[in-house]
Structure formats: C-alpha cells, structure tokens
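Need residues for this backbone.
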C-alpha cells in the first residue's frame, strides 16, 4: 500500500522521457486539430489575413521601417485600404453576380430561348429543357457556396471580415514576434523557411496582385466588346468575366464565346463575328502578353500549378482558394524538393 504522505513530486512517472516527448507532440497536434476544427468556418479569414500581410508588407517596410512612420497609423492606413479597395468592391461584385445567377436560375426562359434558336440554326439538340433548368439551379447553389455575400449571412460576413482585420492588425503591430515565432516553431531549417517564404511571396504576387490586374484588364476589354456589339447586360457580363479571368486557358472565352453564339442565335451574324474577332485577336493576346510580362516580375508560377490549385482550392476554401490552392500545390513541390535534398545529404553523410 502506498504511503498517502508521499509527496507528489517524488512519485515515479510511468512514461519514459521519449514517451513523454511523443505524447506531448501528440497532445499539441490534437489540440491544434480541435482548434482548426472549431474555427473551420472562419479559417478563410486567417488565411486571407496572412495573404494580405504578405501583399502589403512592402508598404509596411517602406513606411514603418524606412520612413519611421508611426506603426499604428501605418497599420490603420493598410486596414482602411483593405476595406475600401478590396473588401467593399469585391463583395459588391460578388453580390451582383450571385443575385443575377439566382435570377437566371429562377427564370431560365431567356437562356432556353437562346438554346432553342441555336438548335434550330444548327439542327442539333443541345440538351433537354429539364436538364438546363437543373444545371442552372445547381450552378446558382455552387456559386453561392463559393462566393459568400452579405445576402447569404450578414453576421457571418462581418465576423469573417472582422477576424481578418483583427489578425492583420496584430501581424503588423507585432511583426517581430510573429516572424520570430514562425522561425522558432515551424519544424524546418532556415534554408527551407526561406524557400517557403519565397514561394508564398511568388504565389501572392502572381495569384493576387498579378491575377487581379489581369482579371481587371480582361473584364474591361470583354465588357467593352459586348457593349460595342450590343450584347444585353454588358455590366453583368463584365463582372462574370472578372471572375472567369482567374481560370488559366479557359478564362474570358467562357463569356465572350457564348455571347457570340447568342448574337448568332439572334440573327446578328456581323456582331457575332465581331465578338469572335476581337476575342481571338485582342482579348486572348492581351491576356497572354500580360501574363508573360507579369510572370517574371510578380512571381513565376507554372500554369499547371495554378490550374490544379484553383480547382482544389476553390472547392475546399471558396473564393480564397484562388490563392490558397496554388500555394498548397507550390508548398507541396517545395517540400518534396527539400525532402529529396535532405535524403541526399543523409546518404552522403552516411558514406
């Protein structure tokens, strides 16, 4: 029988030091998993904060480090720019897109009329009416899931934006401790951390700054083309073209191609040919030229990495997956290269 008066400190632990080490790591991973699971609905806010921290860090370094401006004022300025330039316009555009997609899904008669005209012109039955209605409804639901709007949940929108701005504030205000913490707790060599940081910067530059710039130019060109050739509702299709432009290869042809078919179905053959000529000669070439010029200046990301990352990222993370998806693929490739290098060093050291 044990002595009840024995001090707790002197009781022998049943685990070895190695077992305690393993259990400590397992406990940390378990608690981290619970935290991620509990915050899963708001994970996009923290990911967006990290991405914007990288995107705005050159401003921060220039103003807070080089010019020695007040850090709090610089941080507040960056947050205001984020809200005014990014948050408000993006959610206004996405709300317009969602509203119109839902309206099309509820009243598909115009789309069905165009399809019937094309069927009569070509002599081929494209699809059944019921299938078209079902596809429109499924598309509206899917787009609503990918692109959250104020109409969907005002409280959820405010919480996500609030968490994003709150996280950005402390990332900038406590920049030194934040970066030191990454170096201290991430299980990588400094060389690997530099590679991962470079990959993050390239992805943010290519898939945020570069892609947004390309998408804006493509959307404006597409919208002007549709307006000149009298396609109905060019403003709405400009918004659609902006989101479609993030898709490599496919992109805006998914907008101006069907617009040309619409004009052909209406008997406006000259306008349909005009849209195709402008699309193939100007819009696609401007897209290719911009991507080539920006690739070297803003992050050289392979199109396959971008395409696979977009498909995976949007499905998992929604609209923020436009950046997170390619980043995950890039990190996977970087870590595979690190794994190969570490194995080679281990073999050379064993010889």
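Answer:
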């Amino acid at each position: 029988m044990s002595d009840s008066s024995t001090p707790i400190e002197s009781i022998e632990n049943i685990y070895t030091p190695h077992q305690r080490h393993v259990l400590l790591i397992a406990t940390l991973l378990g608690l981290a998993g619970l935290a991620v699971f509990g915050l899963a609905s708001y994970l996009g806010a923290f990911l967006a904060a990290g991405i914007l921290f990288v995107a705005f860090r050159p401003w921060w370094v220039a103003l807070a480090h080089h010019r020695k401006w007040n850090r709090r004022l610089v941080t507040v300025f960056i947050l205001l720019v984020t809200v005014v330039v990014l948050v408000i316009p993006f959610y206004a555009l996405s709300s317009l897109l969602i509203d119109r997609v839902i309206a099309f899904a509820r009243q598909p008669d115009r789309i069905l009329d165009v399809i019937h005209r094309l069927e009569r012109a070509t002599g081929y039955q494209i699809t059944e009416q019921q299938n078209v209605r079902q596809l429109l409804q499924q598309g509206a639901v899917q787009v609503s899931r990918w692109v959250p709007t104020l109409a969907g949940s005002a409280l959820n929108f405010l919480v996500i934006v609030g968490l994003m701005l709150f996280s950005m504030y402390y990332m900038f205000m406590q920049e030194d401790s934040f970066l030191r913490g990454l170096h201290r707790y991430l299980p990588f060599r400094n060389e690997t951390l530099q590679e991962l940081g470079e990959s993050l910067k390239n992805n943010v530059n290519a898939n945020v700054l570069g892609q947004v710039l390309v998408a804006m130019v493509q959307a404006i060109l597409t919208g002007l083309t549709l307006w000149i050739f009298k396609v109905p509702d060019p403003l709405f299709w400009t918004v659609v073209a902006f989101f479609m432009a993030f898709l490599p290869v496919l992109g805006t042809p998914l907008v101006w191609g069907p617009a040309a078919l619409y004009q052909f179905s209406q008997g406006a053959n000259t306008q349909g040919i005009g849209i195709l000529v402008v699309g193939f000669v100007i819009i696609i070439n401007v897209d290719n030229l911009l991507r080539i010029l920006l690739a070297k200046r803003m992050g050289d990301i392979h199109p396959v990495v971008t395409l696979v990352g977009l498909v995976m990222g949007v499905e998992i993370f929604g609209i923020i997956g436009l950046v997170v998806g390619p980043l995950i693929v890039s990190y996977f490739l970087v870590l595979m290269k690190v794994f190969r290098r570490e194995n080679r060093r281990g073999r050379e050291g064993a010889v």
